[in-house]
Specification:
Layout (H helix, E strand, L loop, with lengths): L38 E3 L2 E2 L5 H11 L1 E4 L5 H13 L36 H12 L1 H7 L2 H11 L4 E3 L4 E5 L23 E6 L10 E4 L3 H14 L5 H4 L17 H7 L7 E3 L7 E4 L5 E3 L10 E10 L19
Parallel strand pairs: 1-8, 2-3
Antiparallel strand pairs: 3-9, 4-11, 5-11, 6-9, 6-11, 7-8, 7-10
């Protein structure tokens, strides 16, 4: 699968992406804004693009962003259902619909953090329930998404790990730090496909994912080094994303500028898109990525789900074959 040409001012009028041509102003949980010369736009790919071209882009770039995979109303139904469960917490702006998911700026965003931040106990209880909710489990089985995955991969049948995650990120709160996916799933095969699903429209500065250009080789190199250092450890420690050679929260860094500078000779720009409900970004296990700081001009709470798919019959990480809970240690 292969190289998505990355443009500074993409012509995506037919795809609903950024039309201004201005480079995104990005930062992560901590640190300064990334200089504009080190940011860029991802190229969206239409659903009717020949599959050979989709695969080429994926193989060369490490990701492919497909437009309109899931029906838009299905996505917004999921968004409404999720935020309705948080309506009593003060997280949502009064007299607005859960479907919109607008943050109540009179609230402290750190009191409403989701996965990737440090949720309070009452939020953890709601998150546990949301992940086991039949509505969410049905959303994960969306037939349009599953059919596309089989089309894209060529698999006869896909298998999803049960530990899919719902991540909300309020404006001003913390979210997902810099990482690649493989080190969280070390006890299974490293040939899997991550699907990142924005649940609602998500502007480039709205807390969605940003991808570090040309970082697949870096991810492989970093993992090889982590495993070399940990080779003397018992297996359960060796496969742990929080072992003594990893950071305490499982992320490699929370500062996009700092991380990019550390690996300047190996990687390119931080890339992002103006994502729309129905879009899905697929990336490989080694692609380095993180959430942008949510500074959405409309006050929207970023909601997304990250899913991992294997070909049926592959060796799965058994730790990930249970529904997410806040205290599962993964």
């Amino acid at each position: 699968m292969a190289s998505a040409e990355v443009l500074n001012a993409p012509d995506t009028s037919s795809l609903g992406n950024n039309l201004s041509g201005h480079l995104p102003k990005l930062r992560s949980n901590h640190g300064n804004y990334v200089a504009s010369s080190y940011t860029g736009w991802m190229q969206p790919t239409s659903l009717d693009t020949p599959v050979e071209e989709m695969r080429r882009r994926f193989c060369e770039e490490g990701y492919v962003w497909i437009k309109n995979v899931i029906p838009r109303e299905t996505v917004y139904d999921m968004r409404e259902h999720y935020f309705a469960q948080f309506a009593h917490t003060g997280m949502l702006l009064p007299r607005t619909s859960p479907r919109d998911g607008i943050f109540n700026t009179s609230s402290d965003p750190t009191a409403h953090q989701g996965i990737g931040g440090v949720p309070v106990d009452s939020t953890n209880a709601l998150l546990n329930a949301a992940h086991a909710d039949p509505v969410y489990r049905t959303f994960l089985a969306d037939p349009s998404l599953r059919a596309f995955i089989r089309h894209f991969t060529g698999w006869d049948q896909e298998c999803i790990v049960d530990r899919a995650m719902l991540r909300h990120n309020c404006p001003g709160s913390h979210s997902t730090g810099i990482h690649y996916d493989q080190y969280f799933l070390r006890d299974g095969e490293d040939e899997f496909l991550t699907a990142w699903v924005p649940i609602g429209d998500c502007a480039a500065t709205g807390g969605g994912l940003m991808y570090l250009e040309n970082s697949t080789s870096l991810g492989r190199d970093l993992e090889a080094e982590f495993l070399r250092k940990a080779e003397h450890l018992p297996k359960q420690e060796r496969i742990d994303a929080f072992n003594q050679f990893m950071s305490k929260d499982g992320f490699m860094c929370h500062d996009a500028v700092e991380f990019q500078d550390m690996h300047r000779d190996k990687v390119g720009r931080w890339l992002v898109g103006d994502y729309e409900a129905g879009d899905v970004v697929f990336h490989n296990p080694w692609m380095v990525h993180a959430a942008t700081k949510n500074e959405d001009e409309l006050g929207r709470i970023r909601l997304a789900s990250d899913l991992r798919f294997y070909e049926e019959g592959a060796k799965l990480d058994p730790r990930w074959m249970k529904i997410w809970t806040h205290d599962d240690g993964l």
